[in-house]
Each structure stands twice: as structure tokens, then as C-alpha cells.
Amino acid sequence: MDLGQKLFALFFVNILFNLTSCAADTKGSIAKASLFTQVISKYYYVSAIAKMNWFQAVHFCRKLDSNLINIASKAEMDAITNFLIANGLVNKRFWTSANDLEEEGVYKSISNGQPIAYTKWGDNEPNNVNNEDCIEITAKNNIFYMNDNDCKPLLANMPYTICERENPEDFIPIKAEAREVVPPNCSVKKLLELCQSMGNIMNCRD
Predict the structure, then answer these.
(1) Pairwise CA distance, residues 149 & 160, whole Å
(2) Contacts of 83-89 spanning 24+ positions with Cβ under 8 A
(3) Which is more confidently placed, 80 or 191?
(4) Which pLDDT value is given to residue 3?
(5) Are 130 and 150 in contact (CB under 8 A)?
(6) Domain C-type lectin: where (predicted)?
(7) pLDDT band at 32, cuts 50/70/90?
(8) pTM, 2 dp
(9) pLDDT of the residue at 99
(10) What is the pLDDT of residue 41?
(11) What is the pLDDT of residue 135?
(12) Spans of all domains in the chain
């Protein structure tokens, strides 16, 4: 075995050492990503089974590597409205990322800390009844509007949750038909690249 082969063998052992954790991370990422549905330029996961308070909803979305929905434009509001109606969810209410916990009347998104760019308030909203600081969307006549709500309401008054995420590069399948994903920093990708660069030393597909 010449020096080049020895170096390759050492590198290959190091790659194998990292494959287990790499595969586990990849499967977890695929599982999370598969929950989301594309609506215009974003990906959403609508949780319409369990009600949560606003803080629980924030944590729930973060566990999915996402954020509470941040409705940034009329186009997005219209798109999410159509999506919810098409899926029979027009009678439910949903948290958004907007809140004025930091400063009364100044609504910011928990996802980026910036003032919200778009509002579509319902009639006489926001009214800050009983110190309401967190924003939900709720429908009237099949049109969703924004409303301020208590961040920790009683269960009967708790909305459901919509999480959103951009489509990150590491969730784009290599081959759509294979439904396989390799994160850019994953050791197995480095192994594949090395295999392909070394010609017939080994069969990279096996």
C-alpha cells in the first residue's frame, strides 16, 4: 500500500466514524422538512390539532427549525387565507409571530425582532382588552383578519399554530425521485466527492 492509499484509508476511517451521526441528523432534517407545504415562496406547517398559548407555539415551531408565521404582505395573507379555506380550517384561529410585548402598540415579529411589515386588522382591532399582546388571525365571512389576544389565554380561547420556514439549501433533494438529501457539511458528501475524484479506486454507488 503506497502513501496515497494509506492517506485515503485514514480519511475513509474518519468518514465512517462520522456517518452514524450524519445519517441521524439527515433523517431528522428530512422528517421535519416533510411536514411543510409550499405556499407561494414560503413553506408552512399548520398544526390544527392541539391548542397552545403563544409562548408554547413559539417553542413548538422552533423545535421544527422554523418560526411562527410572519405575514409580510397582502399577497402572503391572501395565499395563507386561500390555503386554510381549501383545507377546511376557516373556522379556526392561528397564532402569528407578531406581538407588542416589548412596547405597547409597537408590533414586532418574534422571528426577526423587526416591526411587522403588514397588518390586516379586524373591526375595532387591536383593542388591547385585558392587556392583549400577541396577534392571531381569525376569519370572518371567509376572510382572515388580525386580532390581538392574550398571550396565555384560557384553553377555550387558545388558537392553533402555523409554523413557517424558508426552503434551506440542505433540504433540497439531490434527486427528486430518490427523495434523498445530503447536507452540505455532511461527511458522506465529502466521501462521495472524493470517490468521484479518484476514479476506479472504489465504486462510489455501492
Answers:
(1) 13
(2) 83/37, 83/39, 83/44, 83/46, 84/46, 84/139, 84/144, 85/142, 87/46, 89/46, 89/48
(3) 80
(4) 56
(5) yes
(6) 43-151
(7) low
(8) 0.68
(9) 97
(10) 86
(11) 98
(12) 35-167, 169-200
Instruction: Select from 3.20.20.70, 3.40.50.970, 3.10.100.10, 3.60.21.10 the CATH code of 35-167.
Output: 3.10.100.10
Q: CA-to-CA distance for 106 and 116, rounded, in angstroms?
A: 9
- Selected residue with higher pLDDT from 70 and 168: 70
3-state secondary structure the chain: CCHHHHHHHHHHHHHHHHHHHHHHHHHHHHHHHCCCEEECCEEEEEECCCCCCHHHHHHHHHHCCCEECCCCCHHHHHHHHHHHHHCCCCCCCEEEEEECCCCCCCCEECCCCCECCCCCECCCCCCCCCCCCEEEEEEECCEEEEEEECCCCCHHHCCEEEEEECCCHHHCCCECCCCECCCCCCHHHHHHHHHHHCHHHCCCCC
